[in-house]
Structures are given as C-alpha cells and as structure tokens.
Amino acid sequence: MLSFFHKKYFIVDYLEGLTDMHCHILPGIDDGAKNEAIALEMLGLYTDLGYKGVIATPHIMEGYYNNTAAGIKETLKDLESVMSENGYGDFHITAASEYMLDEGFDKLSEQKDLLTIKGNKVLVEMSYLQKSVFVDTQIFDLQQQGFEPILAHPERYPYLANMEQILKFKEHGCLLQLNLLALNNHYGAQAGKQALTLLSNGKYDFLGTDAHHPEHLKSIKKIAISKKLVPNFEALVEKTKIGLID
C-alpha cells in the first residue's frame, strides 16, 4: 500500500558548521541590513541555523552601490565591535564583495583592487535584464589577471533558459553558486526548476544564502528537498566548506 505521506528532508539539518559565503549583512551600505540592529538579528538567526561564520558580500555596482574595498573593510570593523559587545565575538565574519560585471568592474579588476571570497576567488553577478555583450571578455580578463570567478545565483538569470547555457560559464572557468532560497521557488518557478536541475546534476560549486534581511534566513528553515537530492546537497555543503579553506 502506497503512503500519501512522504518524509521531508529539511536543508537546515545539513548546514551545521558552514560559513555563508554570500550575504548582505553589513549594515547600511547596500540593499541588505539597514542598520546594526537588523545585522544582529541576522547573526542570531545564522547561529540558530548552525552556521559558524559568514563572508559579507555587499554589492559593488557602478551608479547604484559605489562601495569601495576600504569602505567595506571599515564597515566590517564597526560591525565586529558591535558583535563583540553583544556576545557574538566567537562568530567568524570577514568581508568580500559581490561585483556587478559592468564598466566599473573593469577598472577595479585592472587595478586588482578586488575583495576576494578566499584566495583568488571573486564573486560576480550579471544584470537580470539581459546578458552584457562584454561578460565573456570580462570573465576571461579576470582569469588572465589571476582571479577565479564565482558566478552568483546562475539559476536566477531569465535569459539563461536551460542548463546548457549556464554550463557554458562553467566550461569557461566559472564556479557556480546556488542561492538556497531558489530551492523554495523564492525567485519564481523557473529559477527553482533551474536550481533543482543544476543541483541534481552536481553542477554547483558553492552554496550561499544571499540573505539581505532576517526573513530570508527564517525562510531557510522551511526549505525541504526530496530524499534523492540529499546526497547531492550534502556533497555541495562539503564542496563549499573545502572551497572556503585557506
């Protein structure tokens, strides 16, 4: 007799000891945490989820978020002081950036003035509207300068309509980072479908929350995957941990 009830495998059960390599927790410098109080609330939620640390990745996007490496580091220093005062001194936090592949990025990469995730790894994103004609050249130039690009949330770009188009980036040397919320159709059914396809085929190299506010982290507690995807998800957690080792 077939059961109508199926066990849910919640992803939160596999996150213990992980570092979030993509989030917007630094207060007041992009569309993430608006102030220190919200950043502290996010830290509490990270602890509840089992995370041991985060790499803050505020946007650098010409004309919108004109952050600099120096400014990001200063904001990180201020938050570290607040964390220490509020009992989060043992929670590990560092800073990098999520770079939009725009004209401003060319200047930064030429100057090698980039905040990396770990070692030479750089988190990059593209416009959601259309693929820039310069993206392939920018990725190639980045690699020529000794950096290794990580393409943030490839499942979210509507113009990458199938896995083959996404995997062209991987073929060209890009690592791929899953946004966890995509597994719950947070960004729409198409993004969710892409995420599940890439995950089931073992094509992701990193996972991150891309959390901008507490509600994103609260939603992660509710995400469940099928039993057949559990080994792939566990493998991705381990790949992420290994990829963030110094």
Describe the structure.
α1 packs parallel to α7 (214-220). The strands form three sheets. This protein has a six-stranded parallel β-sheet with strand order 4-6-7-8-9-10. The radius of gyration is 18 Å and the shape is globular. The N and C termini lie far apart (52 Å). It has eight helices and eleven strands. The protein is of the alpha/beta class. The chain has helices at residues 36-49, 69-85, 103-111, 135-144, 163-171, 189-200, 214-220, 230-243, and strands at residues 9-10, 19-23, 53-56, 59-60, 92-95, 98-100, 121-125, 148-152, 175-179, 206-208, 224-225. The protein has a single domain (9-243), classed as Metal-dependent hydrolases (TIM Barrel).
Topology:
Blueprint: E1 9-10, E2 19-23, H1 36-49, E3 53-56, E4 59-60, H2 69-85, E5 92-95, E6 98-100, H3 103-111, E7 121-125, H4 135-144, E8 148-152, H5 163-171, E9 175-179, H6 189-200, E10 206-208, H7 214-220, E11 224-225, H8 230-243
Parallel strand pairs: 2-3, 3-5, 4-6, 6-7, 7-8, 8-9, 9-10
Antiparallel strand pairs: 1-11
Strand and helix order? EEHEEHEEHEHEHEHEHEH
Largest sheet properties:
6 strands, parallel
The CATH architecture can be given as: Alpha-Beta Barrel
Helix content: 25-40%
The N- and C-terminal alpha carbons lie at a distance of: 52 Å
Tell me what portion of residues adopts beta-strand conformation. Answer: 15-25%
CATH class: Alpha Beta
- By DSSP (H or I, 4+ residues per run), the number of helices equals 8
Tell me the domain tally.
1
What's the pLDDT, averaged over the residues?
95
Biggest sheet: strands side by side, in what order? 4-6-7-8-9-10
Classify the fold: give the CATH topology.
Answer: TIM Barrel
Report the strand count. 11
The CATH homologous superfamily name equals: Metal-dependent hydrolases
Query: Given the C-alpha coordinates, what overall shape results?
Result: globular
C-alpha Rg (nearest Å):
18 Å
**SSE-based structural type:** alpha/beta
Unreliable runs: none
Oligomer: single chain
